Amino acid sequence: MKRAFAYLLLFLACAAAFARGGSSVILFETKKYVSFFDAPIAGKSALASDSEGRVRWQTLEPYVSAMIFDGSEAAAFEFEGGKWRRADMPASRAVAEVMAGLKGAISGGGVPEKVFGVSKTSGDSYALVPKDPAIARAVKSITVKFSAGSREPELVTVHDPSGDRTEMRVVKRAAGDFDISAAFDVSDPSAFDPKTFLEKK
Hints:
The chain is an alpha+beta fold. The chain has five helices and eleven strands, in the order H-E-E-E-E-E-E-H-H-E-E-H-E-E-E-H. The chain has one domain (2-190): outer membrane lipoprotein receptor (LolB), chain A.
């Protein structure tokens, strides 16, 4: 359940920060700082979201996995042996219920105060602190840093209660009125490839 809620928080932080009322696909370079490792674990991830509140979070490196919320159902997948397979997600119902309540944030309506406390930490940074105890056990806070003098987020940092953190820096983004419905197909996660999509933009 902790892993599912951690993914949920990544979805929310990114989608709420990057939503502009249309569709959005973002590529991140990630660094996971873990206390017992000397160097951060590097990776890549992608986020796709649309104005209907549907979200796809996909890890691209160092392994491949996806979590998809299609508006009513949340599902997790892993890519192994050249094939996608549905992964066990015991908290899928809870995740779906929370995500359904967050559609406004994901589609550009702001971060719900019932779910997060929001505060400005410095000039261009905001901190989101979860109010839900189950979510707070997985994530201590999320910091969103915007480019200087702009409303374009450039860095999202997820702080774990353990003191570990994950930094996600935006490297490419496409936003607009385009159809990415395939990204949210919980019956076929292979129907959308975020890297290929962004290469064409």
